[in-house]
Amino acid sequence: MFNIDLITRNKLVTTKTVISVLLLLLLCLTQNTFANTFEEGKQAYLKKDYSRAIEILKPLAENGNAKAQITMGIMYDYGHGVPKDSAESIKWYRMAAEQGEPLVQLDLGIKYFQGQGVAQNYQEAGKWWEMSANAGVADSQFNLGLMYYRGIGFEKDFDKASSLFEQAAEQGHANAQYSLAVMYAFGQNRQKNYTTALNWFRKAAAQGVAQAEFNLGVFYENGYGVEQDLAKAHAWFVLAANQDLQEAIEKLRAFDKTAILKKTNAEKETNQFTAQTTSSIPISQLDMSQLLSQQPADNYTLQLISVTSEEVIIKYINDSKLGEAAGYVKVVVEGTTRYAAIYGIYQTYEAAKTAINVLPESIRKTKPWVRNIGILQGLLL
Questions:
Q1: What are the C-alpha distances in Å from 106 to residues 32, 78, 83, 95, 179?
Q2: Which pLDDT score is estimated for 285?
Q3: Closest CA to 26 of 64, 53, 3, 63
Q4: String of DSSP letters for 136-153
Q5: What is the pLDDT of residue 258?
Q6: What CA–CA distance (Å, rounded) separates 350 from 257?
Q7: Are 322 and 339 in contact (CB under 8 A)?
Q8: By the 8 A CB rule, do 45 and 60 touch?
């Protein structure tokens, strides 16, 4: 079954990320009652003239200027011109948060959730995230959704979690999109809906969420809400494995038997390959579809090229002069009939991979690749 673990491994948006956003906010602040003076303080801060910045901004902050309060909080958070002081930083952040600054509310929620400079307090974290979420901050919506999903600081409530994930997902929050997909896949918020889950997994995968890529592979592998397609499943597993997702790597091993071999085993496979390539595979015609369908699903072949014309593929095979080990199969890929030139039958992935190196240079230029026979059998017309 597909994996739900990411939802319980999801990390909250970090304080460092929020502070970076707050620093960026300083560059585009709107003017207010203290605008001219605050602008001077902001410029002093950006020029790293921290003494001058504190001289200007502290009185403004004490008089209720939320932007100055944010800047003072950042200075104590980073130790800019003052000693690092978490308690003092939180004091200034709280002042700004109480005036409705949603990004500061997000940051305060993180500090209380993680116990940074304050005693860990999930209820307090949830309070600030709820204020920020109501102001439309996607990270707060996601973090609060995780609390309801996990039952941290609140009773578990899948309906509230789903609603918050959806609000963040609609704003393009990748982890919220993934989390919402999981809930639809398992029917945790309402009736199970693979089609909707697939849609959200695709959006998360488009933003590079490896676990979403993996789950799309599982959907295509098993036909959840979509027509079963082992080739597409394999492609999604490859994308996830490229991000070092262990579940995807294990899936590919199951698909292609690509587990790392010891050196002695690799040498043995090379010797087996030599024996295989010296003898031709008996076939009576170039169309190898029937022969391929009779092979063990965990064996391998080399795919040389794939075209839409049977005449072209026959000419290619005859011109290649690879002997009876070469032929073609007729397959359907995304509704299109194609003719794939294949070469050889190999018991292991490693042996097939080695075989590429001894093909004629003209053939290697077309970048032949190893295909699992079981996957090709699923595509045969």
A1: 23, 18, 24, 14, 20
A2: 54
A3: 53
A4: T-HHHHHHHHHHHHHTSS
A5: 40
A6: 9
A7: no
A8: no
Give 356 or 147, the one with higher predicted confidence.
147
- The region, left, alpha or beta by phi > 0 then psi within -120 to 50, assigned to residue 332 is beta
Cα-flanking dihedrals φ and ψ of residue 151, to 5°?
Answer: 75, 40
Give the lowest-confidence range in 139-148, 196-205, 281-290, 300-309: 281-290
Under 8 Å between Cβ of 287 and 329: yes
Encode pLDDT of 5-24 as tens digits: 444 445 555 554 554 445 54
- Read off the amino acid at residue 44: A
Helices H / strands E in the chain, number of each: 21, 4
d(Cα 229, Cα 220) in Å, to the nearest integer?
A: 5
CB 146 within 8 A of CB 165: no
Domains parsed from the chain with CATH numbers: 1-137 (1.25.40.10), 157-256 (1.25.40.10), 279-379 (3.30.70.1070)
The one-letter code for the residue type at 75 is M
- What is the total residue count of the chain? 381
The amino acid at 333? V
**CA–CA dist 310, 305 (Å, integer):** 12
